[in-house]
Amino acid sequence: MKAVLVRQGGVLSVEDAPDPVAGPGEVVVELRASALNRRDLLVRNPPGPAYRFPLPLIPGSDGAGVRRDTGEEVIIYPALGWGPREDAAAPEWRILGGPDDGTYAELVKVPAENVFPKPRRFSWEEAAAFPLAALTAYRALFQVGRLRGHETVLVLGAGSGVSTFAVQLAVQAAARVLVTSSSEEKIERARELGASGGVLYTDEGWPEAVRELSGGGVDVVLDSAGATWGKSLRALRRGGRLVVFGGTAGAGVELDVRYVYLNWLSILGTTMGSPTDLHGLLRMVEEGRWRPVIDSVRPLDEAEAAQERLRGADHFGKLVLTPG
């Protein structure tokens, strides 16, 4: 098969690789499309030991294709070894695409329990773009953030894969959605997905602008930036919930602890989601009319260019690779 490998020094190499062979309880999927996530950049150039895996390695967590043994059209659930609990994954939990070979390839091997029926109304590219980011958004909004239909949620960073799904899912649940962005264009595109409005995070006083837009503070903030926790907390109403699932702007933050407890605020961490979460998400897909937002589609040979676009600030939605 053709595959993209990460080699020493963060080099991406398109090569012929051995076809994966399914063992007991495993299946091989012929991929029709795969999708990029920011995690792929960390696997390629690890910022710390959590992303240092034996190389060479095929990256990629998201994919959709045809199950070789049955011919079924499937999506891949990217979490391996989640475990029995719903509040947190088991210690052996990991994500496909490091250390296990992932989806930047024509074929991928996964446990049989990790394939789910492809949503019928999605194209191959949309189905591949869907699992990791949409599941992260679903769990952050509903299972961890406990968002309800009458509430207002602020989604930081309009345009990322997770944020586009978060806007669409929250709107489907009848919540009011606000966003932050570095550009008015992206705020407008978020409005097209159902958001009520947004603010520029390049303005120092954006938390106050959010409080004004929301009538006193939002109920929930979804924050994948990390270094923005202090400002995100200021955008919440009393008793609000800050849900965090990333550190794209930095892993360190300094907080006013008194402000947190004197305003009854909660800080909640999450990442990915359980199989139960995925079942709930798929129900929303069946009941909804939205579609994954695709920024661009490229062949496997152009994985380097796709990652460069993901690394920048111009993309809106998911970036997808196809074997052909």
Q: TL;DR?
A:
The chain is α/β, with parallel strands linked by helices and 324 residues long. The model has no long low-confidence stretch (mean pLDDT 97).
What does this protein structure show overall?
By secondary structure, the chain is an alpha/beta fold. It folds into 2 domains: 2-130 and 293-322, Alpha-Beta Complex (Quinone Oxidoreductase, Chain A, domain 1), CATH 3.90.180; 135-269, Rossmann fold (3-Layer(aba) Sandwich). Helices cover 28% and strands 27% of the residues. The protein has 10 helices and 17 strands. The protein has helices spanning 38-44, 124-129, 131-144, 161-172, 184-192, 206-214, 229-234, 257-262, 275-287, 303-311, and strands spanning 2-7, 11-16, 26-35, 62-67, 73-76, 79-80, 94-95, 107-111, 115-117, 152-155, 176-181, 197-200, 218-223, 236-244, 266-269, 294-299, 318-322. Strands 3, 4, 5, 8, 9, 16 and 17 form a 7-stranded mixed β-sheet that branches. A 6-stranded parallel β-sheet has the order 12-11-10-13-14-15, sandwiched between helices. A two-stranded antiparallel ribbon has the order 1-2. Helix 3 (131-144) crosses helix 4 (161-172) and helix 3 (131-144) packs across helix 9.
Contiguous uncertain segments of 5+ residues: none
User: How much helicity do the residues have?
Assistant: 25-40%
pLDDT averaged over residues: 97
**CATH level-two architecture of the largest domain:** Alpha-Beta Complex
- Report Rg: 19 Å
Supply the CATH superfamily name of the largest domain: Medium-chain alcohol dehydrogenases, catalytic domain
- Compute the number of helices: 10
Give the overall form: globular
Q: What characterizes the major β-sheet?
A: 7 strands, mixed
How many angstroms separate the termini? 12 Å
Structural class: alpha/beta
